[in-house]
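User: Hi! I have a protein structure encoded as tokens and I'd like to know what sequence might fold into it. I'm fairly new to this, so please keep things simple.
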């Protein structure tokens, strides 16, 4: 029996993500938590003739406790999205506290659950989640993930578009670093099958992957950021976790993890000086099995991009950690 919880389930991401989870044969019980609207979303989804039971919870009457108790996987797309002109870091002041409080609930009511953080700024909200779990003595680095799958999805789509290929899903592209602007580093030189895109075309493609989020924010004209593509990406990530839990092998996703706690992470930490980093991670029944240290194989051009990413990440990670360990 697999219980999945969506925190922020009434939102632009939360609703379509909850729909996809309701359609999944790997989910038996779906709990939808939000500060508004979740009972309505749950009732709506509950009429779909798939096996998962669905229930909505609000904060009143111990709603968070009831939603989280017994959870196997908790996905967190709660918090405010960007408007044009904002950076993801501009969301920190509001979203940091939201993620802290929800992960506090995880620590208390389902400390063994997988936690997939979507709320921005991911570069900082994942360190916040880690510190909250550490504070409660229940941190398992193999089970905490920052969801960077949308960067992977964009890299597949935009690369296929540049090459005039009709099926983006054939590409496997390591996208490393973090989840904001130039902390997102697609390693096109390590794509499989190999791709040959050079010069200005390569530079434009990399910029488009790094700043794909801005494209959506601008197109939505103040009405939020990516929701539908994110729901797809979030589902792809949770589905990969659940497949790995069910015993499927060879599942690898790019995701933002705590390096010292995952096999292979120490080498990346030594090379980057960072505690958190997104890279291809092999998933198994207990979560992250191994993080691939592919940075040494990057091209010289990509190594230049990585240096920029390391600086931005260091600042974002410190800000997240300090929010819990040294609050202002
Ligand atoms: P939204 O405003 O449409 O939905 C957010 C939901 O969170 C709302 O329903 C709101 O009521 C709920 N919420 C607020 N505080 C809460 C709390 N304390 N507990 C539970 N729920 C709470 O926003 P959205 O478009 O769905 O985006 C949500 C977040 O995801 C944003 O921070 C956005 O930047 C981020 N995001 C991340 C990625 C990524 O790749 N990781 C991609 C897209 C968006
Ligand atoms: C994205 O990459 O689409 C999300 O992080 C949302 C945003 O603010 O761009």
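Assistant: Happy to help. Inverse folding works backwards from shape to sequence: for each of the 328 positions I chose a residue that suits the local structure. Here it is:
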């Amino acid at each position: 029996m697999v219980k999945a919880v969506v925190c922020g389930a009434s939102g632009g991401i939360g609703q379509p993500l909850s729909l996809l989870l309701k359609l999944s044969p790997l989910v038996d019980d779906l709990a939808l938590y939000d500060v508004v609207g979740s009972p309505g979303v749950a009732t709506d989804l509950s009429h779909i003739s798939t096996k998962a039971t669905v229930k909505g919870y609000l904060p009143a009457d111990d709603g968070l406790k009831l939603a989280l108790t017994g959870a196997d996987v908790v996905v967190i797309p709660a918090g405010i999205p960007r408007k044009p002109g904002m950076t993801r870091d501009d969301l920190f002041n509001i979203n940091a506290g939201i993620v802290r409080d929800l992960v506090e609930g995880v620590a208390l009511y389902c400390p063994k659950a997988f936690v997939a953080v979507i709320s921005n700024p991911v570069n900082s909200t994942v360190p916040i989640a880690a510190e909250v779990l550490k504070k409660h003595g229940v941190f398992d680095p193999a089970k905490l993930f920052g969801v960077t799958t949308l960067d992977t999805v964009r890299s597949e789509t935009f690369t296929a578009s540049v090459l005039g290929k009709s099926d983006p899903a054939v590409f496997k592209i390591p996208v490393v670093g973090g989840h904001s602007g130039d902390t997102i580093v697609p390693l096109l030189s390590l794509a499989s099958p190999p791709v040959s895109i050079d010069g200005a075309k390569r530079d434009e493609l990399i910029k488009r992957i790094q700043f794909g989020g801005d494209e959506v924010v601008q197109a939505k004209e103040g009405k939020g950021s990516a929701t539908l593509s994110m729901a797809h990406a979030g589902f792809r990530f949770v589905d990969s976790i659940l497949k790995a839990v069910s015993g499927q092998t060879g599942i690898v996703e790019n995701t933002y993890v705590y390096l010292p706690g995952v096999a292979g992470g120490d080498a990346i930490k030594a090379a980057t000086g960072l505690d958190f980093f997104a890279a291809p991670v092999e998933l198994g029944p207990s979560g992250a099995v191994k993080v691939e240290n592919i940075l040494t194989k990057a091209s010289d051009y990509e190594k230049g991009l990585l240096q920029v990413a390391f600086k931005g990440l260091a600042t974002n990670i410190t800000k997240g950690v300090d929010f819990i360990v040294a609050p202002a």
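A useful reference point when you look it over: The chain has eleven helices and eleven strands. Feel free to ask if any position seems puzzling.
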